[in-house]
Design a protein that fits this description.
Chain lengths: 383, 509
Amino acid sequence: MSNERKEEKEEQAYAYWLANCSGLGNQTKRRLEIYAGSAKAVYGMKETDLKGILTQKQIKSLMEAGRETDKEKLMEHYAVLKKQNIHFYPISHPNYPNRLKTIGNPPYAIYVEGRLPEEKIPAVAVIGARQCSEYGRYMAEQCGQELAKSGIIVISGMARGIDGISQWAALQADGFSCGILGCGTDICYPSENRKLYETLKSRGGILSEWPPGTSPRPELFPLRNRIISGMADLVLIIEAREKSGTLITADLALEQGREVYVVPGRVTDSLSAGCNRLLCQGAGLLISVQEMLEETGMVHSQKIGEGKTEGDMKALLNSGSEEMNRILEVLDFYPRSLDEIQAESGMEYGKMMFALMNLCIEGMAEQLAAGQFIKKRKRETDE
Amino acid sequence: MYSTIASAAVCGMEIVMVHVEVDIAQGLPGFILVGYLSSEVKEAGERVRIALKNAGVTLPPMRITVNLSPAHIKKGGTAFDLPIALGILKALGELPPESTEGILAVGELSLNGTVNPINGVLPLVKKAKEEGYLRCLVPEGNRQEGRMIEGMDMIGVADLDEAIAYLKTGRIPEEQNTSCGEREEAIQGDFQEIVGQGAAKRAAEIAAAGFHNLLLVGPPGSGKTMIAKRIPGILPPLTEEEKLEVSSIYSVAGLLSHSHTLISCRPFMNPHHTITAQALVGGGKVIQPGMISLAHKGVLFLDELPEFKMNTINLLRQPLEEKQVRIVRLEGSYAFPADFMFVGAMNPCPCGYYPNMKRCHCTASQIRRYQNHVSGPILDRIDICAGIAPLELKQLEGKIGQEDSRTIRKRVIKARQIQEERYRHRSYCCNALLPQKDMEEFCRLEKAEKEFIGQAYTRMEMSVRAYQRVLRVARTIADLDGQEKISKLHLAEALECRMAGEGYWERRM
């Protein structure tokens, strides 16, 4: 091993130590590092050196942290991290994402499993409600898939609902996706997204500013949100209630100078209330993913973008029998009961049922709960 | 000085003929009761002695031994008071020896000699008839109940004096109340009163037609209970035989009264979810039929299914399969009939509004946990699952001319007749009980239908059991339609009311 690399590794270990020092903010750590020249130098600083730079309390916690770990232990800790296959990038590291450096209060260091998104490829954060409606689910799938097909990176928080769905759709379409967690990268939260988590690890990336082993705590998630918007060039909001975490992310995105696009919804839907509010305040309106990407200059218009969402449905409409089409017109992304479907289609009960079941078999409709049906995007590949 | 009187004991639903033997002999004066007796029978000694004294009979200072034979069966209840008293009188020579021949006597005595009603007279009289008895001496309060069995001479006695007088002179006591009461058709409500909910009503009709078990799922206040309560009204009326069968259970449970001696409409039982295991399936210190037996030939409705304790619900597994429940105790094993239609109702999620995401804030794991409260094996035995959608207020207005229960019932009866005709050489009589081995024969599908269901099978990820359920239900729908051949339309409808997946509306991702 060359001397240079050894030094680099040592510096990393010191940075790791500094990143784990409690009582100091991200900014302070960064300033301290610049002042001293390196993390190693910060480690070597004496109490008297720090006077005037830090407050008494900060000095105390830094000194305590220094006393607790000697140099050998420091290297050991770092080796454990390496063994877990977790990459550690302090802000001074060349791999540290440039996008993050531009935000206010960038994390002093980040932990990454898998790969980091490439700097040159545009990235879109797709976020939304955890308890989403079927409409939200549909839109999240659609957007995730189309973004991936356009070669755009999908950033999100790997949460339940919109986040996870869009990321999964992107991965299914062979795209790249990066999950930003509010806990250590070695913890899968929420646990039901285990499959997504593993896939992200192998084919995408997982990023967190918290050291491994940090369990998910409510106060960590708002902080996580600034990284989601920070890692993206554009934030796309699919569904959000008024007064939701998603709207906070939207505010953060605007502060960071990111574009915000919103999927519109019906005025009567509480799950779209936040989205419509943002639209009212001047956020971009998503008509189709393609148009959004062209408007923002992320892709250049190659295919003239007719709304693919519409086209998809039209293709479906042409494929089935007349009765099936009639039912399909009545169906919606909002669950409809059998009685409603029958009343609106005006068909005989038996025939209506037959057409409906055919749609279910074809995968164009789905029984959501007892007697409740929704329209569904035809499955291209089985999950 | 020995005498014997015929009587009978109720053991669960079974009636055991008992002979009350009395011997009066010289010796140390005493009153001894033997024959594997429970404590209430042992107390009969005191009641009988005082009742006899008050009827003007003084017991001689002799050794009186009473044996209830056969002596190996545990006997409970207070029905032996009267036969013991009569046996003593006969042994004392107060009654002519031939007067009690061919007579079966039961009844409880008060100290003043009044004969009080007892439980289980109806099955008891039925058994007596089978055993060749001609007359039954029963408490006046039970006379009407016994009359339900034709060809039996029922003599109701109000007190001990009347009984003695009858046996001595053959004078039949005056009948106080001759009104014979069939229990009024107390069907609760009519389907006409339910506005909208076409799909749910249709599901109820199918369930009734094939005696399928039914699960109603819907938000609070959408009318699940309303629909369930009206199901007995669309089931075919009970046959005379079934009426006696059901009434016998009520008789044993002591639920028949003087004016209501015959259960003539299908029972509807809806126990609260705090019900204990004993109350549900039967049992207790003195073995009594449980809710499931009281729902025999009718409907057992469990509202808020996930609130029931898992182990209580799981007790239904065997009765649902075998149509009877067997309770084993130290004294023996008792079988109670329990051929009921199971109707469950539940909300789709803890708050009740899923999949309406405007109102439902339940997380996927909350919904899963809620669903998991319902035992899988029980869900496995439910053929039809119907969703009930919340009504909009405007739908409530001005909807008249809906179908009434009578019209629906007519269709159900027709479908039942078809089934009875089809299964006349089998041990079962309705589609719900159609076993797998006979499906090939009775649910034959044409090529096109086979293709259709085959597609559904793979695309909807059904299990074999789910597939069989769909076939059974499709059979019933075809019967309702009056068609021998199961068509695609029938299959489609059956597919809709199946329970999909593990739970059935599991939230994805």
